[in-house]
């Protein structure tokens, strides 16, 4: 199921009935995941930049890179700049390699975003994690924010771990327990994740 304004509203109404998450849903109202004008390549590059950084640090570096290569991340433009020029924006050596590797994969059509739209969740994870620098968490975030899939839950996400701990206490003791607890939100786990992030914020 793909996100639409109607589907997000239906999910919100369903999640309101959850005794654990319902109060948070009521407090924050509509789910505000952006549905329009989402460029999959741009989304993936931003997720690489953001890895293991605070939101503020990631935003600063992202804006420096955009100032260098242009407002929108495009494979050809990222490949036109020397490694050191991207390093000077604050990116680590590895992240420059990852970003340019993904740009090359898209340019050579090794990675086809259009084909990912109709692939299964597992196929998306397998194709994306075959790229250097893309792990399961990055692939899951991509499915939520770029492919707009309604039922993705990423127990590897630190924010979700904290949100689950606040809601469920010791019951959310490990990744397997989190996944079991999140089953109550199927088929709307992506939307439930958005509300869990609001708890932490």
From TrEMBL:
TM spans (from-to): none
SUPFAM superfamilies: DNA-glycosylase
CDD domains documented for this protein: ENDO3c
EC number: 3.2.2.21
InterPro entries: Alkylbase_DNA_Glycosylase/TA (IPR051912), DNA_glycosylase (IPR011257), HhH-GPD_domain (IPR003265)
Entries under Pfam families matching the protein: HhH-GPD
Keywords: DNA damage, DNA repair
Reaction(s) the record says it catalyses: Hydrolysis of alkylated DNA, releasing 3-methyladenine, 3-methylguanine, 7-methylguanine and 7-methyladenine
Record carries keyword Transcription: no
Enzyme kind, highest EC tier: hydrolase
Residue span(s) of domain HhH-GPD: 49-201
Protein name as catalogued: DNA-3-methyladenine glycosylase II
Organism: Aliikangiella maris
